Amino acid sequence: MKYPKKDLIQPMSGSRWQHIWSGFVGDKLAVMALIIFAFYCIVALLAPLVAPYDVKDPAFMDLMNAEIAPMWISGDPRFLFGTDAQGRDLLSVILYGTRLSLTIGLCAVLIQATLGICIGLAAGYLGGRIDNFLMRCADIQLSFSNMMVAIVFLAIFQSLFGVAMYQQLAMVMLILVIGLTEWPLFARTIRASVLAERQKEYVDAARVMGLSSKRIMFRHILPNTLSPVLVIFTVQIANAIVAEAALSFLGLGMPATEPSLGSLISAGFAYMFAGSWWICVLPSMTLIILILVMNLLGDWLRDHLNPRTYKD
């Protein structure tokens, strides 16, 4: 007897969405964090339009304007946040640096999520030797410090192919290194959710209907396991931005011609106690606020997307 192949996904109920929305609106801290994060994203996306100066303009770098204090100290209306040691407008490079840091963080986490979700789905649904092999690979990956792996890999690449080649591929290398070292977190989370979901009746019904394992995993099980993934995704973007900033601070990040927030902090640290504190402090404050609001959003999502905190 054949059954109609209707959708077997168990969607989140409308009352659940109403509960989440009302909880969000009632949480002023979460609303403020989302507004600030949205502001960061909009400003970063529109950096070429809102930045006072074009960082790609050869005239942008003028040593005659080096180390000018912010406008509220120097009174110079040309540079709201002052200038750095190379005479660049600090507000402009911070806007472009925020755009670059968010791009690296988002792309790196997309790689983490893609690898982790595919591996976690296969391990949890197929089980057996495949599960054991994939989880042992995850254990091996987790046994090494992610930052140590990134430093060793980037340092070896820089020494083998030269600094010039590394600077041309710095953004791609950072995305790949950060993305390929954090996938076990997604894989373990998805695997745990799949182990619970595959025992449910809608999965048995899908098997009886003759659906392929690939369709069952990606079309029916995956949508019901995305709640914890959203939480991890938000927090991991913040972690990826911090990792990029740390690598840039160590000299393994973006070149000075394409400054990220981490490279701006690294370049300004030498002037921290030489009177030009704003070169380091202002990019640092920008990074701290960005990481703070993303962690606040991640905490809020964790609390409100957890099924144990909600009852119909």
From TrEMBL:
<keyword id="KW-1003">Cell membrane</keyword>
<feature type="transmembrane region" description="Helical">
    <location>
        <begin position="225"/>
        <end position="250"/>
    </location>
</feature>
<keyword id="KW-0472">Membrane</keyword>
<dbReference type="InterPro" id="IPR025966">
    <property type="entry name" value="OppC_N"/>
</dbReference>
<dbReference type="Pfam" id="PF12911">
    <property type="entry name" value="OppC_N"/>
</dbReference>
<feature type="transmembrane region" description="Helical">
    <location>
        <begin position="100"/>
        <end position="126"/>
    </location>
</feature>
<dbReference type="GO" id="GO:0055085">
    <property type="term" value="P:transmembrane transport"/>
</dbReference>
<protein>
    <submittedName>
        <fullName>ABC transporter permease</fullName>
    </submittedName>
</protein>
<dbReference type="InterPro" id="IPR035906">
    <property type="entry name" value="MetI-like_sf"/>
</dbReference>
<keyword id="KW-0813">Transport</keyword>
<dbReference type="GO" id="GO:0005886">
    <property type="term" value="C:plasma membrane"/>
</dbReference>
<feature type="transmembrane region" description="Helical">
    <location>
        <begin position="147"/>
        <end position="166"/>
    </location>
</feature>
<keyword id="KW-0812">Transmembrane</keyword>
<dbReference type="Pfam" id="PF00528">
    <property type="entry name" value="BPD_transp_1"/>
</dbReference>
<comment type="similarity">
    <text>Belongs to the binding-protein-dependent transport system permease family.</text>
</comment>
<feature type="domain" description="ABC transmembrane type-1">
    <location>
        <begin position="98"/>
        <end position="298"/>
    </location>
</feature>
<feature type="transmembrane region" description="Helical">
    <location>
        <begin position="172"/>
        <end position="190"/>
    </location>
</feature>
<keyword id="KW-1133">Transmembrane helix</keyword>
<feature type="transmembrane region" description="Helical">
    <location>
        <begin position="270"/>
        <end position="298"/>
    </location>
</feature>
<dbReference type="InterPro" id="IPR050366">
    <property type="entry name" value="BP-dependent_transpt_permease"/>
</dbReference>
<dbReference type="InterPro" id="IPR000515">
    <property type="entry name" value="MetI-like"/>
</dbReference>
<feature type="transmembrane region" description="Helical">
    <location>
        <begin position="29"/>
        <end position="51"/>
    </location>
</feature>
